[in-house]
Specification:
HIT family, subunit A, ATP binding, globular, ATP_adenylylTrfase_C, 9 helices, ATP adenylyltransferase, about 25% strand, three-stranded mixed β-sheet, alpha+beta
Length: about 290
């Protein structure tokens, strides 16, 4: 596998994606959008029935894929078709198409060291790979769900690329200036030099500082794992401390905290409504008030 993204355009990505969907390799189908607001916070629920086959919890089995090859020793992620792998980045990550998709296309960034774990914090190599994706595919944002409480469903360390923007991004990124209320605590920084000019070491430095603030809010000792979400889009990095992966049947990953929630059916939306949209976000994150 070459280490070159020059021959991968958004157009070629979609071509490969569509072909693998038509052959039943990638699980993807139509979704319905429901847009709501609670205490001013905007949210979009994408109901995607194709997600019913996705394993949503760590350790969950998926009979359809259990015989597929794993993504390396120690990995709990499946690679049923080599065409899912688009290229290798910097000798550290595979850039691949996701098996279970709400977007067309949706990307996975997996560590080549398949013993790396999702509860570990991000490294300079991870940011190098994330920056490459953001530069090559300007319509995409990248997320990282750190640990069970961060909403991850697989243990092998990976990030994801999704079609931007996250639904509540504009609201959230301008909240402090406009005095708008965000229901949960988050920390953010805009890179004035842009992702194009940012080095992975710059991003790591900012992330380390924001992660330290997450630890404080969650009252964690240095040695303890810090569950959190990372979202990178439009030259911003946003880090969200997490207390829970789900509550009373409602759950969210990094995208969900930023207003883009993907669910397999209407009953999941009903759960959010029953508990209260903002109440769920406060339970998953740290309430801002």
């Amino acid at each position: 596998m070459d280490n070159n993204m020059d021959n991968i355009s958004e157009e070629s990505l979609i071509g490969t994606f569509d072909k693998l969907v038509s052959e039943g390799v990638i699980v993807y189908g139509p979704s319905t959008s429901i847009k709501v607001e609670d205490e001013g916070y905007p949210m979009e629920f994408r109901i995607c029935p194709a997600l019913l086959t996705k394993p949503h919890t760590v350790g969950a089995a998926n009979p359809a894929f259990n015989k597929s090859r794993k993504w390396g020793p120690g990995s709990d992620m499946f690679c049923p078709d080599e065409r899912l792998i688009l290229t290798q980045l910097n000798g550290t990550h595979d850039l691949a198409l996701n098996l279970f998709c709400v977007d067309r296309p949706q990307l996975l960034l997996l560590t080549l060291d398949s013993y790396r774990r999702q509860h570990e914090s991000l490294t300079s190599d991870d940011f190098e790979a994330m920056l490459e994706v953001l530069r090559r595919f300007p319509s995409m944002y990248v997320i990282f769900n750190c640990g069970d409480k961060g909403g991850c469903s697989r243990l092998h360390k990976h990030m994801q690329g999704l079609l931007g923007p996250p639904y509540a991004f504009d609201y959230l990124s301008s909240a402090s200036e406009d005095g708008k209320k965000v229901p949960f605590v988050y920390f953010s920084r805009r890179f004035n030099q842009g992702f194009k000019g940012a080095k992975s070491s710059d991003v790591l430095e900012v992330y380390t500082e924001l992660l330290g603030r997450c630890r404080k809010v969650l009252e964690l000792r240095e040695a303890e794992t810090c569950p959190h979400n990372v979202i990178m889009w439009d030259n911003w990095i946003i880090v969200v401390p997490r207390r829970n992966g789900g509550t009373q049947g409602a759950s969210a990953n990094a995208g969900g905290m930023l207003g883009s929630v993907w669910v397999p059916d209407q009953s999941a939306v009903d759960e959010w409504l029953r508990i209260g949209y903002v109440n769920v976000l406060k339970e998953l994150g740290v309430p801002s008030t």
